[in-house]
Amino acid sequence: MQKYVMENEELRVEIRSQGAELTSIRRKDTDTEYLWCADRKYWGWSSPVLFPLVGGLKDGAYTYQGKRYEMKQHGFARHQEFTLLSQDDHEIWFCLKDSEETRAVYPFAFCLKIGYRLEGSRLNVMWKVENTGSGDMYFSIGAHPAFMCPLDGRGEQTDYYLGFAADEISYQLIDPELHLEAAERYPLPLENGLHKLEKDRFAKDALIVEHGQTNCVWLADPERKPYVKVSFDAPLFGVWSPDCCEAPFICIEPWWGRCDAVGFDGTLEQREYGNHLEAGQEFRASYQIEICK
Questions:
Q1: Measured between alpha carbons, how far is 220 from 227 in angstroms, rounded to an integer?
Q2: Rounded to an integer, what distance in angstroms lies between the CA atom of residue 162 and that of residue 10?
Q3: Which of 139, 184, 207, 275 is the most buried (most CB within 10 A)?
Q4: Residue 236, number of CB atoms within 10 A of its CB
Q5: Banded model confidence at residue 203, pLDDT cuts 50, 70, 90
């Protein structure tokens, strides 16, 4: 596993070759770290890329062309060693291709490219998924960045806010088996687009927000000043922190896919929010992390 560094006048970021995972976003003028450090006491990741699954499968398996395949939550890409494709001062790209190991659980030929580009106080995270096989391909992909909350040890998490570029937000929950509770939607209390974080807010795992309700989510400090923003054009996103251990971070997760809903009994092709590529086609998506001044 290798570690790579990019920096400009405002930010210094680190990425590791395992999972092509972003592991640090540090503001240079204050030396403040914004990304979670992957301490396994709470959660052993910083910003894994979820591929070819987002969330979990009903009974831990899916069916494709009459065959059953088992796969763990969020897929395998975060565990794989990526190859460096290119690097300059402000942009870097990695690649993961299918192998005998991946085809045992996911019978498709693919090339997953993950890129990062620095632009001032903003980091662009870019994905390209290419179907390199001769038939159709089905997949999900998602982000899982974890941001410090509280920031730099200031105050308690319950002093902080989630912000949304929307007047109203409704969310769904996940059941104990990590399936979407499809029937019930809950309004998230907002005041001027802000939701004050509560002690038990994530007692039932992630909040899942569907149907493109907003394209920007941020964290704000006790003075309600935003300090990190995540912008995206994803059809849905999750917000999560492990409730059981009062972890000092919040994940803001743009998704192109999600876990199976309670009662889902379809095939891989029928999974909600799944993506489809014909042979030779390429899927592109991106999101942006902005460090606010």
A1: 6
A2: 24
A3: 139
A4: 22
A5: confident
